[in-house]
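tool=predict chain=A
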Amino acid sequence: MAAGGMLVKVRGDGRAFAMATQQAFGAGGVEVKPILTIPAGVTGMGLAPSSGATWLHVSALSQGEENPWDAAHQLMVPGSSFAAATGAAGADVELIEPDIEQRWPWQQEAGAVPGPGLTEAADRCTFIDQDGKGTKAEGPGFAWSLNDAFSELAKARAGLGVDLEKKLNQVIIAHLDTGYDPHHVTRPINLDTKLQRSFVDGDPDPHDASDHTPDGLGAVRNRGHGTATLALLAGNRLDGTLPDWSGFKDFIGGAPFARVIPIRIANWVVRFTTSTMVQGIEHARQNGAQILSMSMGGLTSAALVDAINLAYDAGMFLVTAAGNNLAGRLTPKSIVFPARYRRVLAACGVMADGRAYAGLAPPTMQGNYGPSSKMATALGAYTPNVAWAIIDCGKMVDMNGAGTSSATPQIAAAAALWLAEHGPLVAQYPEPWMLWGEALRPAECLFHWLRGGSDRTCDGRQSSGRRGTPPRCI
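tool=predict ok
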């Protein structure tokens, strides 16, 4: 377990803490950067009233090969130079935790074609069809998951009629991932490049969220995670000339006209930290995102909890991946964080034949689920063998997309379509969190709305034409 520094929660704005750390370690020994501010007097569903607090990322506090949690505890041992300095300066430290480096396991099992290794550049851009190995189900044709027998996302889009573009353009979705390919045909129509951000350490421009691959590694096939999930979320219309797509001329994404803010929180091999997740969620909140789609996750964190609660109280719908595991291997099989939190909808998997995305033959990748206490706020979407746009191959879209990474943007797209339909009504709720927390219980309502169409309430009953009241789940 590695850490990229420490995360420290202090009361107030953190200035006293910054002075104390400079005293303890020297002016050039540490770098202190605020990553999340909890306003004074916050009284939402997730946060108690407070005098205000700040989460800070502090570099260079964790040294050597020690366990990062041991390092965090050692910093606060009475008598240590750090504890003495912060106490003397009046820097009221509430919490400290390591900024854990994590990697999202989204690739196919070892030995899958073409595998995670290097290939010829031309081979990277060769179409890969669905794969039924390991007892995985295959769907009928291209973009099958959008069809009426499956997610009905295409039908829900059609239900918005001539107002599809106008209504979806009012919905703001934050897409947290490895970034995007500026030149791919599936790039969303309304990608908000003015608000794009990168929180990945080492990126040259924090206002550029495009996916970067190190020099010399462009032939690695298993990269471009963000390009592919973004295409499922809001991918543009294909023109019928894509290789091996048999004249397909429709949108590849579930919510193609939504306004999408690209936020890069992980590098090209999907390595991220707690702090990049926290900063990405907060950037989404500060810029008015109504929906957040994040096809990754990992360990829990107090800083992550605060970021989620602030976003939830602001009325944001958060859907994140449940996680992946290898069948027959000792890998975690229950839902990861932040999908595990009750205020986040966990995206699990269901296959084309209706089976759960689990119980596959070893060592096939499959989706996480459980515990049962979480499943009331979990929802399945179709995976594997769904569309998967290939970075740096301008018109290539494979059909071997897999993992709960593929499920997540489909659910976010469904939420966007629902919000596009009912947007004028949501202002009736006195508190922003009521939209998703009470009015729309996502695991039930999105399913019933897709199945019943926009003329039904979220509990699946006929609305009797009462379209002027906010839809509710009972």
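The mean pLDDT is 83. The domain at 3-102 is CATH 3.30.70 (Alpha-Beta Plaits).
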